[in-house]
Amino acid sequence: MIDKCKGLLNKYRETILYLIAGFATTVVNWVAYALLLRAFDDMKHSVFLANTLAWAISLVFAYVVNKIWVFESYSWEIKYVAKELSLFVSARVLTGLLEIFGVPFVVDTLGFDVGIFGIRGMVAKILVGIVVIVTNYILSKFFIFKKEEQNEV
Predict the structure, then answer these.
(1) Could you tell me if 121 and 115 are in contact, meaning their C-beta atoms sit under 8 angstroms apart?
(2) How many CA atoms, within 13 angstroms, populate the side-chain half-sphere of residue 80?
(3) Distances from the Cα of 80 to the Cαs of 61, 129, 139, 147, 148, in angstroms?
(4) What are the tens digits of pLDDT across the range 34-68?
(5) Quick one: DSSP state of residue 76?
(6) Which of 140, 148, 150 is nearest to 71 (CA)?
(7) Number of DSSP helices (H) and strands (E) in the chain, helices first
(8) HSE-CB for 13 with a 13 A CA cutoff
(9) Would you list the domain boundaries of the chain?
(10) How many other CB atoms are found less than 10 A from the CB of residue 89?
């Protein structure tokens, strides 16, 4: 039984680490948002500014964690970091737009306006969020942190 569990953990190690990294990134985003909102409390558009900066901080955190811990991309040569980081940011902006426009599309256009705990469209947000997570994983694994390129160095 223990050997079977170890085998499953080894088989799905990368996926498990990706989900843990995603959870940690969410925590970083929320904590940064809370701290920044408090720091910018007296400023006009403080929510927008705090949210934007929290997104940027969590993006950098996600890049480093995914690079080192999840996909084990250890090359810090500038040409690889520049390529990875630009692809990573581009992918996250793309999937961010997918979420921004996908949730209203699923709710308003497809009529899938199911709520959870009285929160309108929450099921759509969860479904689109799953698509975003899977898309980010596929883009990271196959296009951003490709191991074969680093082995050529």
Answers:
(1) yes
(2) 15
(3) 17, 29, 16, 11, 12
(4) 999 889 888 777 888 898 999 999 999 999 999 99
(5) -
(6) 140
(7) 6, 0
(8) 8
(9) 1-70, 74-153
(10) 15
Task: To the nearest 10°, report the CA torsion of 23, 26, 31, 36.
Answer: 160
Q: Sign of torsion, CA 54 33 31 101?
A: negative
Which amino acid appears at position 75 of this protein? S
Percent of the chain with pLDDT over 70: 96
The tokens for 34 are 């809370």
DSSP string, 69-123: IIS------HHHHHHHHHHHHHHHHHHHHHHHHHHHIIIIIS-----BTTBTTHH
Structure tokens at 151: 């082995």
Contact 145, 67 (CB under 8 A): yes
Query: Whole-angstrom Cα distance, residue 153 to residue 114?
Result: 51
Tokens read off for 84: 């990875």
Q: State yes or no: pLDDT of 153 exceeds 60.
A: no
- Residue 129 CB-density burial (10 A; 0-12 exposed, 13-18 middle, 19+ buried): middle
Percent of residues in the chain assigned helix, strand, coil, to nearest 5: 80, 0, 20
CA distance 6 to 75: 29
